[in-house]
Amino acid sequence: MALIVQKYGGSSVSDAASIQRVARRIAQTRLAGNDVVVVVSAMGDTTDELIDLAAQLTSAPPTREMDILLTAGERISMSLLAMAIDALGVKARSYTGQQAGLITDAEYGRAKIIDVVPGRIQKALDKGMVAIVAGFQGVNTETNDVTTLGRGGSDTTAVAFAAALGADVCEIYTDVDGIFTADPRIVPTARQVARITYNEMLEMAASGAKVLALRCVEYGRRYGVPIHVRSSFSGRVGTLVTDELGTGIPGLLPQDAQAANEAKNGDDMEAPIISGVAHDRTEAKITVVGLPDVPGTAARLFEIVAISGANIDMIVQNVSAQQTGLTDISFTLPAADAPAAIEALTKARADIGFDELLFDDQIGKLSLVGAGMKSSPGISAKLFGALRDAGINIEMITTSEIRISVVTRAEELDSAVRAVHSAFGLDSDGQAVVYGGTGR
Ligand code: ADP
Ligand code: ASP
Ligand code: MG
């Protein structure tokens, strides 16, 4: 008997029939003798629809009210799921994040988990019940207000409860069969990987692969929670996110280990050089034109951006023009953070002393990720060559030890991803299945 945390994403519970399908899987897991904690997301695209509704009323909704609004989505799915499981004759209880004991700081919309106190969840398990927890929400105990963890945060809720309860595995059920070498919605020939390390998945998630939320992977790495990403539609064995690849497959339940051996859906004897190609269309680029090229300018500029609350990603500074001693700095940031950053910079224009600001939200970012990169020469050359052959211009470049990222025009991003994926020989013979979801 194991303690299993299962998380079901929005596309897995998009309507009554899907909720019933998921309820059957949960009931089966419970009836097989396991203790089961379920974390559930809002149905389908509910969260996006609630955001759209708020946007019809105001361009700057108060963040506290926004969090109260968004947590409603998960309250709907958690209670419906509890009813569906109960109807199958298995006892289930649903809990909001607050009731479940997920304590956060007071940063609405991007709250960080401070503590998980799963007393009520443990009690429900002790009584033989399936405990259902609303994803992506918690409470700040100073204000006693509900908070949300940021988009995709139900993954983090699941791993946080898995860590707090000492679960054997955290299963993330979604609308694809696991983690692929690229988003199967863009690259149908993407290859499913059997295993990936926390570090590689961290880079993939940080580079936009939304199959797992970044903070969920960080949390999993810190507490050593094996994460198993799989489809709620097919039930096939998916992808394990674990420590450095070695022998043994921690986190696979016995029935899955057998299926994994039979299916041999990947080869984890030797770690591949490249784990995948990620993409991100949620960033924008700001160029600050005509900055004085003197010590302290960049510090001043980015202090102001930081105070606006924006998270900087890439930065490029041009060489300064000799006659003028002026230079330009371009940086990328989440498009959602751009209005505040632009407002703050515009106010500080005289102080920093630049000529003008250019804003561009029609950019895309492609990232090639792989731990083997640091010991294999020629990876950048091959990446740039693939983009050249596809006629795609590179606007910015950054690298880390195990990642190379480039910015392209937004409309060229899909072709760029396909070109790079092929150039690195990542295509499989088969076609990846996307079982549901709208890709929103
Ligand atoms: P959920 O609603 O279950 O949380 P998400 O939409 O957040 O699902 O994440 C699953 C989606 O992630 C897939 O449908 C796929 O389009 C996308 N995705 C992006 N990169 C990858 C990747 N490397 N492997 C698998 N899926 C990916
Ligand atoms: N419902 C939230 C979102 O859409 C949280 C989640 O699904 O993980 O971002
Ligand atoms: Mg998600």
TrEMBL record:
GO MF terms here are: aspartate kinase activity; ATP binding
Q: Which UniProt keywords apply?
A: Amino-acid biosynthesis, ATP-binding, Diaminopimelate biosynthesis, Kinase, Lysine biosynthesis, Nucleotide-binding, Transferase
Question: Reaction catalysed by this chain?
Answer: L-aspartate + ATP = 4-phospho-L-aspartate + ADP
So where does ATP get bound? K7, Y8, G9, G10, T174, D175, R185, K210, V211
Q: Which positions does UniProt annotate for substrate binding?
A: T47, E74
Q: In which pathway does it act?
A: Amino-acid biosynthesis; L-methionine biosynthesis via de novo pathway; L-homoserine from L-aspartate: step 1/3; Amino-acid biosynthesis; L-threonine biosynthesis; L-threonine from L-aspartate: step 1/5; Amino-acid biosynthesis; L-lysine biosynthesis via DAP pathway; (S)-tetrahydrodipicolinate from L-aspartate: step 1/4
Please list the residue ranges annotated as the ACT domain: 286-371
Q: Which organism is it from?
A: Rarobacter incanus
A Gene Ontology biological process in which this protein takes part is: diaminopimelate biosynthetic process
Chain's role: Catalyzes the phosphorylation of the beta-carboxyl group of aspartic acid with ATP to yield 4-phospho-L-aspartate, which is involved in the branched biosynthetic pathway leading to the biosynthesis of amino acids lysine, threonine, isoleucine and methionine.
What high-level taxonomic lineage is stated for the organism?
A: Bacteria, Bacillati, Actinomycetota, Actinomycetes, Micrococcales
GO CC term, one of those recorded: cytosol
Q: What is its EC number?
A: 2.7.2.4
Q: What is this protein called?
A: Aspartokinase
Top enzyme class, one word, equals: transferase
Q: Which family does it belong to?
A: Belongs to the aspartokinase family.
Pfam families for the chain: AA_kinase, ACT_9
